[in-house]
Amino acid sequence: MQSARNDFYRRIMTDYTEAGVDSVIYQYISNEHQRLVVDAVRNSETIKKSGIVQIKYHWQQLLSEQETPEQYIVDLLHILQRRPILYQDTSHSTSVSFLIDLIGIGLDLDANEIIQLKQNNVKRVIQGRLIELANKLDSNDDSIKQSILTQFRKNNYFDKPHTKLRKITDEIVERATNVEIKAFFYDAGYPLSEFQYGNLKEASKEEQKKTGNKSRNKIDKTFSILDLYCEKKNMSLFADQPYPSEEECKELYQLLVNGENDEVFIPLRIDPRTGCALYIIGRKYYECFYSKEVSVARKRKFDNDTRACCYGILSLFAPNEGLLEADHSIGYMLLNNTDEFWKYSSFDEALSDYEFEFSDIMSRLSSECNHTFPMGLPPIFDQYFNSREMEISAQEKADMKNELDQELKQSKKDANDDSLLGSAGKIRIDLKRTRQRKR
Question: Which of 118, 137, 236, 354 is the most exposed place for a label (fewest CB within 10 A)?
């Protein structure tokens, strides 16, 4: 049975890799940082431990005019001097050149030196110049410091609303938050790099001893209790019934794939919000894809394949996907990529696409199907609708603006995703009709 711990971490890791700054873990950590900053400001305390919270604290002080832009730059450079990892994370961008303008102006570099620094773009080199700038601002020679600050003033670094400093600060905060998220997953025993490459696995203490794994796997008693509770009650953390583990799914597949099991249809994962499902599916249900295959070679290849089944995904057939303009039928379909001979023989690949699919369907349900909220709608169903036609408060308007901004980002992502899925050859399968043809 899939453990509650495994299931929880896989889901928040999937959410993080797909949603980024809008993910639950990113928003949670950001909110925790902000809470610490608010407490520090309220109690007139200086934060000494967390680099990212220090940056947010000094930024808040700058915005409230408790700190000057000159002092903010000095504080920022001191923090980055001690902890370069805060800005050197390259999860979403391989470049750290966003600091070059700040460094170039502070050190009064000429155009050629700035071009060389941008072309070099080596973290160690940029960090060296950043330290050089910080040391000059700490110089006992006040004329050196004043000369640097004059350069910043001339280049609008001290002008309200601090646009240039905000851009740099936002970039550093995002990168630093990503660093903290990676550390969170690593400490929990789920390195993000392994998850991204499809190797996510909770190593036992015995396995760690054998492989020399020095992961700082923290013992989470809450999850241990939750795992035991789910096992005793035959429950899953995210479903009414327990999911089989990845190992159990793979074991079943190996038992079926080489036998005479061409009509098997076994659910492995079902998303309760959308109905999307991951199955082991017999080859009989793929015959319809190849019965009208134009390519003789492809049809022969299918006929000669000895595998009895594969992994497959059933997904929602939306009304606007009808073959005819007047076709408003709706149901579930078997995803099939016409560019490939068979669909999935790898559980990891199938699971990844399944998780993407139900996330995509959730977005499409609200944007394409359910356009307005009915009055008195229970809040739990809000996720299926994209607007409310009713009087709203000022706070609700502000919240809605935030949501719309996030939806705009998501819609751009969805547009790219749809273009990729457009060639995926989504074809419905009627299992009952397929059986009748066989008979």
Answer: 118
